[in-house]
Amino acid sequence: MYKFDEENLIREIKERKAKRILLQLPEGLKKEASRLTKFIQENSNSEVIVAGEPCWGACDIALDEAKNLKADLIILYGHASFMKVDFPILYIEARYEANIEELIERSLKEIKDFKKIAIVCSVQHMHQLPITEKILKENDKEVFIPPKKGFAFYSGQVLGCEYNGLKLIKDKFDAILVIGNDFHALGAALAIPKPVILIDPFNKEVYSMEKKREKIIRQRIIAINKVRDARKVGIILGNKPGQHFGSFNYIKNELEKDDKEVVLIVMDEINDDKLVNLYDIQAFIETACPRISIEDYARFSKPVVNYREALVVINDLTFEQLFEQGIV
Ligand code: SF4
After folding, report:
1. Centroid of ligand 1 to alpha carbon of 7 (angstroms)
2. Distance 289 CA to ligand 1 centre (A)
């Protein structure tokens, strides 16, 4: 069950004297939109407008909508602060309340062959790191919580595109325990070539990411090779405030040296319908969210790779280096 922190929410709105609020919720929390709207309007002098476009992450802030609507505050649920923007934003992190002790006990079987364990979580589970650390230590494990790096707001926090804290200490641990969902655990497995075990408090499951990692790696090799073979390549630039990964100009120049024709394209949401309409472009490199190319692999009818994978296309990295250093 999520904690919506209503008391803090109203106090902050009043302190900021917000008159018009743009309320942004991730897809999994959108069902709370009407309840929260009513609650805010009944308990403050603010008008609430719900952002109806998808919100996939803390990178995905509806700045244009807020400015067009002349809102004076964005409330972004389910995320911690990600980057500096020139607009007032109130982040409400929405912790997920659940007793996970039994799941942690279950995870001990999965990590029985490893002594040194890194533990990380998505922001909804930050409060569950201490109990995880305690139980692991009681079971004779050495525990490592990575420092906050890059887009992470907390030590031990991971995002779908942010595993640099783990990478920084990767020589210290044998395996990674992720508290969160399949998406965050898969990201860890693709970022660091070590065993990753997921503790999933939502579905009350514990499992290894190994099989899924192997399957995704096979898919990525296919996609990268297809982009290599393409003569005309589209480089997609993200239009969302926090979705700019790598230098598109660098990739463009390198592809052109290899006699490929390159078209620069800007998009908010990247989906197959848009790519199909660009009918003469054979393959795409997306420099927006690095997980799109991976998560939507089966939905795309043309090959799509992310920035780090594009480094293999232009021969800056070998496949081995990419998988060693991380696809994300
Ligand atoms: S860029 Fe992608 S993975 Fe990173 S926070 Fe945004 S949606 Fe999540």
Report:
1. 28
2. 5
Asked if the model's pLDDT at residue 288 lies above 90, the reply is yes
Determine the Cα–Cα distance for residues 83 and 113; give it in Å rounded to an integer.
38
Q: Mean pLDDT, to the nearest integer, of 314-328? A: 98
Q: Where are the domains of the chain?
A: 6-92, 101-208, 213-325
Residues with CB under 6 A from ligand 1: 56-60, 159-161, 242-243, 289, 291
- The DSSP secondary structure of 43-97, one letter per residue, reads HSS-EEEE--S---STT---HHHHHHTT-SEEEEET----S--SS-EEEE---B-
Question: Ligand 1 pocket test: which of 122, 123, 163, 243 has the largest number of ligand atoms within 8 Å of its C-beta?
Answer: 243
Strands (E), 78-192: 89-92, 116-121, 142-144, 175-179
Average pLDDT of span 134-161: 98
b/e string for 148-159 if b means 16 or more Cβ within 10 A? bbebbbbebbbb
Q: Which CATH number fits domain 213-325: 3.40.50.300, 2.30.42.10, 3.40.50.11860, 3.40.1010.10?
A: 3.40.50.11860
- CA-nearest residue for atom 8, ligand 1, is 57
Q: What CATH number should be reported for the domain whose range is 6-92?
A: 3.40.50.11840
- Would the pLDDT of 252 be above 90? yes
User: Among 233, 223, 276, which residue's Cα sits nearest to residue 254?
Assistant: 233
Taking only the tens place, the pLDDT of each residue in 216-240 is 999 999 999 999 999 999 999 999 9
Is the pLDDT confidence value at 1 over 90?
no
CATH code of the region 101-208:
3.40.50.11850
Mean pLDDT of 66-83: 96
